[in-house]
Amino acid sequence: MVFNYDIVVIGAGHAGCEAARVAALRGMRVCLITMDLEKIAQMSCNPAIGGIAKGQIVREIDALGGMTGQITDRTAIQFRMLNLSKGPAMWSPRAQCDRGRFSAEWRKVLENTDNLTLWQDQAVELLVENGKAVGVKTLWDNEFRAQCVILTAGTFLNGLMHLGHVQVKGGRLSEPASLHLSESIAKHGIRVSRMKTGTPLRLDARSIDFTQLTRQDGDSGWHRFSFVSERRELPQIPCWICNTNEDAHEVLRSGLKDSPLYNGQIQSIGPRYCPSIETKLHTFPDRDHHPLFLEPEGLDTNMLYLNGFSSSLPLDVQLEAVKNIPGFENARIFRPGYAIEYDFFDPTELNRSLESKKISSLFLAGQVNGTTGYEEAAGQGLVAGINASLKCEGREPFTMGRDESYIGVLIDDLITKGVDEPYRMFTSRAEYRILLRQDNADARLTPKGRELGLIDDQRYEAFLRKQKNIARLVTFCNEYIVKPGEMDESLRSVGSSPVSIASRLSTIISRPDVTLASVAGAIETLACMIDAMDYCKEEVLESAEIAIKYDGYIRREQQEAEKMRRLESIRIKDRFDYSQIVQISTEGRQKLARLNPDTLGQASRIPGVSPSDINVLLVLLHR
After folding, report:
1. Burial grade of 523 (CB within 10 A; 0-12, 13-18, 19 or more)
2. Which of 252, 270, 326, 330 is the most exposed place for a label (fewest CB within 10 A)?
3. In the chain, how long is the greatest CA-to-CA distance?
4. pLDDT class for 623, splitting at 50, 70, 90?
């Protein structure tokens, strides 16, 4: 049969779910095709969302109208705000989730989204006519025709799993690989390569002696992922910390000869920042221990995830090594760790909208672009879904700059620099991270989500009310003069020295140990202003304090971002025959010709393009 839609999305992982939902919300008729409707938004590895920079991405997804943040809050069984001892640019939310509930919540959302159809099948061929994607053909010989196709196939494209010498084709344990779709895309000139990732064994909680482990509880505070969630709904339970030791290392070393990573069985490159336990031993031979985190997979299961012990070593080696760790002497496992190789496509062949340069109307998001992580995938999926729907409407694509979001940094890195290993987001990848904080994601992006039709009236009115309250507090603190002796008791209570001369309240708040809440009791007007807030009081106070304490740093970074924005405003796509510009270095000419950057700013970030090359382009543009 032939089915007709506006947009077809292939794959119901984190990228596919966000892409399908957002496109349907924008009025498109969407079909989401997945191999297994019971595995929607499956957390293939660790059932956790967020972390360093990843948490900021989820807050940005939420600010734009995506669902990952809300579903995380509904299914979180432990929440922590990481890096609170550092500056607010580094604060990153992270939650351990109930794996089963997370998937079930996503399915419930998708099944109740208007304009969205779910279809269980396997896409085996991309249909292309005159250089344009027009749909897909499935395993059951159905055709799904559409104006745009979004590919979010994760690790399933020619997926090959490794456990010791055993190799099994598959995209996840006990799930089949997609064996023909890659070839149907690559034949149109799109570069395809291989990457590798892995996962650790899963343990039975009933076999663990927790008295020998260190308990790690979550935060009990008000922080959450979504700007609209009122609370975290599920009971909060602990994780556990332990370490490997020399006995375990000795067992692991004895099995390296059978490791697919070191016997030549696996040729592709794995994630640098989430290495297997055997890679840790190889890279850090002098370390006598490595930290491990034992994390629950849900409230209603005994399954535990051994974070830090990803491996593709033979099963007997994995189990014997684990049993040498204190507390794990009687460990039983539910399933082994394994590695998986899969196809991905060169992201430098994408436009900023995530549309392919080689096949129009084909959008790619997630691990097929060479990234790793649920959060990076979901962010790309959201952008791909938005842009596919805009293309159907004949409108200009939606893009974000490096000074506007971590998602903007992620996409710019992918399309400009490409990848030679699975890409993972870190705060260090962003030049303007003090502008891209988790607390102000809604201030940066909710107006954009509103323009795209993804933020309803109720939420937008609440957002405006919150921003108004923040502005009122900041203005009050900048204008109010504190007299000597006026708040000595409040200042002493937090270990801060009294005011000796009249000072602006904002100057007092700028002290590291002083907060708005700690001094509000001494200033009646401020106390009344805070008490009158009826929405997000804690978030308002946090954002106002950050704006006051880091005002100088924020202004400086905004000035730097404005300088770069000028280069971003200079469009150069298709304006030069770079091979003829002899004043540019050979490497620069080759890289510019291959990538054909959109703007001068993007050109300046291409590895191998020097500042002098950019100056040449500026001179030619002036002429």
Report:
1. buried
2. 330
3. 82
4. low
